[in-house]
């Protein structure tokens, strides 16, 4: 079972370049996300889990913490050090932290 991290813990890790995976749908992501978060809609996690590192912590975020818990549990069962972010993007934004808008940039 994956562990849970507070938005304060995420903020500290994010400031140090921590990996954030956003499991919301593309329209939700585009409406506002943690800057630099990697989009990976929940339905794609089983197929894309192999893209994630096993040698560093992954912070999984959604809107409120429900989908991220499911995704982090899936990841943890496959050897990924995953934390579900309690309160999700809503708590991140309510805490006055930066929010990026728009779709994910495609790699060149």
TrEMBL record:
Q: Which residues form the Rhodanese domain?
A: 16-101
What start-end ranges are recorded for coiled-coil regions in this protein? Answer: none
CDD domains xrefs: RHOD
> Which Pfam family, any one, appears in the UniProt record?
Rhodanese
Gene3D superfamilies registered for this protein in UniProt: Rhodanese-like domain
Q: Which PANTHER family match?
A: FAD-DEPENDENT OXIDOREDUCTASE (PTHR43031), PYRIDINE NUCLEOTIDE-DISULPHIDE OXIDOREDUCTASE (PTHR43031:SF1)
- What is this protein's name? Rhodanese-like domain-containing protein
Q: Which organism is it from?
A: Streptomyces gilvifuscus
């Amino acid at each position: 079972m994956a562990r849970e991290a507070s938005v304060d813990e995420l903020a500290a890790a994010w400031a140090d370049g921590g990996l954030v995976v956003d499991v919301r749908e593309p329209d939700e992501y585009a409406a506002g996300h943690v800057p630099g978060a990697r989009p990976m809609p929940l339905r794609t996690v089983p197929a894309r889990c192999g893209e994630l590192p096993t040698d560093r912590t992954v912070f999984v975020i959604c809107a409120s913490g429900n989908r991220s818990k499911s995704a982090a549990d899936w990841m943890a069962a496959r050897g990924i050090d995953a934390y579900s972010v309690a309160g999700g993007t809503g708590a991140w934004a309510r805490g006055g932290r930066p929010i990026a808008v728009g779709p994910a940039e495609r790699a060149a």
